[in-house]
Amino acid sequence: MDAIHPPARAERATLSPAQARTLFRAGLELPTAGFSDGYAQANLLIVPRQLAFDFLLFAQRNPKACPILGVLETGETTGELLRDGDIRTDVPRYRVFEGGQLVAEPTDLLEHWRDDLVTFIIGCSFTFESALLAEGIEVAHVAQSVNVPMYRTNRSTTPAGSLHGPLVVSMRPIPAERVADAVRITSRYPAVHGAPVHVGEPQRLGIADLAHPDFGDPVHIPEGHVPVFWACGVTAQAAVMASRPPFAIAHAPGYMLITDAPDRRYQVP
Amino acid sequence: MDAIHPPARAERATLSPAQARTLFRAGLELPTAGFSDGYAQANLLIVPRQLAFDFLLFAQRNPKACPILGVLETGETTGELLRDGDIRTDVPRYRVFEGGQLVAEPTDLLEHWRDDLVTFIIGCSFTFESALLAEGIEVAHVAQSVNVPMYRTNRSTTPAGSLHGPLVVSMRPIPAERVADAVRITSRYPAVHGAPVHVGEPQRLGIADLAHPDFGDPVHIPEGHVPVFWACGVTAQAAVMASRPPFAIAHAPGYMLITDAPDRRYQVP
Hints:
The structure is a homodimer. By secondary structure, chain A is an alpha+beta fold. Helix content of chain A is about 20%, strand content about 25%. The model of chain A has no long low-confidence stretch (mean pLDDT about 95). The longest helix of chain A has 13 residues. In chain A, the strands form 2 sheets. In chain A, strands 1, 2, 3, 4, 5, 10 and 11 form a 7-stranded antiparallel sheet that branches. A 4-stranded antiparallel sheet of chain A has the order 6-7-9-8, covered by helices on one side. In chain A, strand 3 and strand 4 form a beta hairpin. Chain A is globular. Chain A has 2 domains: about 140 residues, PSTPO5379-like (3-Layer(aba) Sandwich); about 100 residues, PSTPO5379-like domain (PSTPO5379-like fold). At the A-B interface, helix 3 of A face helix 3 of B.
């Protein structure tokens, strides 16, 4: 197969979700930040039907980390969040786990798919970043063109059945005078992680060094900025790593599902 | 067993949730409206583990009708919403369904309990009624000392796996000049049904006659009042009746679980 020519940065924002998914389906392998402006991107967790209740209950008990935007019926590969799409091919990079171990990072799931798999589509903080930018709050990892830094914390999630694990957070440095605004703005998006879980004092979360995130890339924290932490959908795959179920699939952090849902759908009130 | 002497009306409001549950456990059989002022009452659905994913997904897809406040682990009979309580005895009246048919209305579940049962605790609009009253909006069924009227509608819920059924709504007549306030006030309680789903025009919901509710009691609609409809937790048992799973248990409408959660926990922002 010929390599897919990546679209120019300016072009990425104007692609429709279906157009972007078509490129990823054809083999384009890029982080999805900056694609399809105005449309919600999502975390993914795919588990066998036998684990599906435990995971849905885990999400229900940890709604800030794992806000569920949609669930495909058992074995289904498409749905209203990805019309005419295919969950097995339309994400640029996946992670396959066996017994909690990462065993593959394929660009499609055609060899891994099973008819007993249930797909969970989970909100992503990219949605509220547009709202922060629109109110003049710079988002460091966007400005620095890297993936958002994510950290395992010393906070436990609320377990459910066989699933347990640490809370994972994403971090954005916010100017001290805009922290209250950032709280107010992101509070309006409860379906995509909502308000921060922690402001400042990373060591209280068990984060020893902000320069070494567990997932994603480090960002520079400018003078006068405070590190602000939001619950992160990668918490779902951290639970897989900690709880070691026989089989699970996730997206690769930063390589999200681009959905057909406009960001504004998730704004309240 | 001696009959339990019902507490006087004024006394009911001041009982702690644990005190009220103790009375119901001992056999008191009364609707729970007016008990334990300031604490959230809840709908109940209890299903075998095999049906638990379908129901949790049904609730996730129909959050206005079935907002989940808590889920007990498989076989568990207590939890943080009913500390030192017992879900098998602490509700004044239950309904047992086999194949979607009501087969018993016991005052406890000791003969019906199974170790594979999963208990779902679902928000109830009693919580926002206190808020309406506090802002001077009279609640007709409270003033008239009857159960809230509830109606099956012609609106379908979003199905999930084996579960489907009609949306059930509760109705409160609101003075025309306070309808906007009632919307605003109840919007603040998304975990207990939130804003109305329909204002006026009951025939558009397929309700032929407000004087003949499907559950609960009729209320008088005063001149100048508009019937306002909220999604109702009885939707869960209506799905059981429509979908006919082998076994399920619910509360009897109006005979709720009194939880330890203060109403204010469910107010946003």
